Amino acid sequence: MNLTNLFELQNIDTQLDAFQAELINIDARIGKNGAVQNANQAVLSIQNEIELIQQGLNLIIEEIERKNIKLSQSDSMLYSGKVQNPKELQDLQQEIQYLKNNISDLEDKQLNQMIKLEEIQKSHNSAKSSYNGIASQFETAQSQMAARKETLRLDSERLRRKRDVVLSSIEPELVARYELLRKRKKGLAIAALENDACSACGTQLTPSERQEVHQSSKIFLCPTCGRILHQN
Ligand SMILES: [Zn+2]
């Protein structure tokens, strides 16, 4: 029995199945920008942190300004000669010392906040460049997937036209048997005989079985996997 056309039909269907599987795989991945969103979220959260540090820094700077005004007022009071009472003079001197210590503490704080700010700005830059990389990778992958989809669509169309032609050359009964086997055998109904073995399951045929494949007027099924065997 000449199974050349049926074998070709199988090759076309196998290819179409592969295209279909690839399409499903692409559709599952296309438009999924979770990684881009995560990278963007990381940038935003660092920006948020920068704002908080900046606000804290502004408060410290304002506080230092207020304390400095107070200090210069107390200083001029001290040297104005208006305060004569020793107790009051002592209080004033204490207050000046207190303000100076206070300002010095605040300036340490200010410096720490500025160092923090500088460090977090570095993280911000690296998060931004990481985001840019991920976003551009995403765009590239999107356009590659879209292009691949278009190729798959055109190739599938071409194969389906070819399939129609091949199909019309095979007896309907054989086609029906083929379709049934395809459903049962994971899409592969007919296998080639390669080096006297079934190319689907690897079973080696006996000489008499080989004879049958070669000359039989009926269809010969692989004794192990049950697929139609075809000698090229
Ligand atoms: Zn087999």
Short account of what is shown:
With 232 residues, the protein is mainly alpha-helical.
CATH architecture of the largest domain, by name, is Orthogonal Bundle
Q: Give the topology string: H per helix, E per strand.
A: HHHHEEHE
Spatial order of the strands in the main sheet? Answer: 2-1-3
**What Rg do the Cα atoms give?**
41 Å
Major β-sheet, in short?
3 strands, mixed
Count of individual beta strands: 3
Unreliable residue stretches: none
Q: How does the SSE layout of this entry go?
A:
Elements: H1 4-29, H2 34-80, H3 86-167, H4 172-184, E1 190-194, E2 197-198, H5 207-215, E3 228-230
Parallel strand pairs: 1-3
Antiparallel strand pairs: 1-2
Helix pairs in contact: 1-3, 2-3
The protein binds zinc ion.
Residues 191, 198, 200-201, 203, 222, 224-225, 227 line the site of zinc ion.
Structure in words:
With 232 residues, the chain is mainly α. Helix content is 76%, strand content 4%. It is built from five helices and three strands. Strands 2-1-3 form a three-stranded mixed sheet. The longest helix is centred in the middle third of the chain and has 82 residues, at 86-167. Bound molecules: zinc ion. Zinc ion (ZN) binds next to loops.
Keywords:
single chain; 232 residues; mainly alpha; Helix Hairpins; 2 domains; three-stranded mixed sheet; 5 helices; 3 strands; 4% strand; rod-shaped; binds zinc ion
